[in-house]
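thread from #wetlab-drylab

HS: before we spend reagent money on co-crystallization trials with nickel (II) ion, can we at least see a predicted complex? here's what I'd submit
DV: go for it
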Amino acid sequence: MSLLPILRFPDPRLKRVATRIEALDDSVRRLARDMAETMYEAPGIGLAATQVDVHQRLIVIDASETRDQLLILVNPEIIQQDGAQLCEEGCLSVPGIYDKVERAEHVLVRYQDLDGREQIVEAVGLLAVCLQHEIDHLQGRVFVEHLSQLKQVRIKSKLAKQARITA
Ligand code: NI
């Protein structure tokens, strides 16, 4: 197992659209394990393969308080959504930035588990937000892109300053 480096917004690689995983082999299982370890270590509640510069449809999530409800979703797809909620979001690719984004309150997500079996997860609240946030990453979208242009400019300059300080 190993910790993976996480791309930081506005790295252009975060804009790449991930492709479907056709062969569920050991390399996918290894990547899922490494992503989970990276997410727990960060710590974060979700991580998309896009954020570790692998452009395949794979996400890991643990939105539980006890940190023992790991979900690994291969080829996740929102098949139903309704309602609305406004929740403050953050992202491991946008460190130190939190802002409110409107999302569906309730989602149904179809995916495959690591054995290739089709599964469906139904979620509300934080888990629903997290699923939408991570699936957005696979489409090349970072949560700050839901915010106003002015806020995005401010966030980019703040992150550029942070990068200079930590470099
Ligand atoms: Ni994120």
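DV: Strands lie at 46-48, 58-61, 71-82, 85-89, 99-103, 106-112, 118-124.
HS: ok that's useful, forwarding to the group
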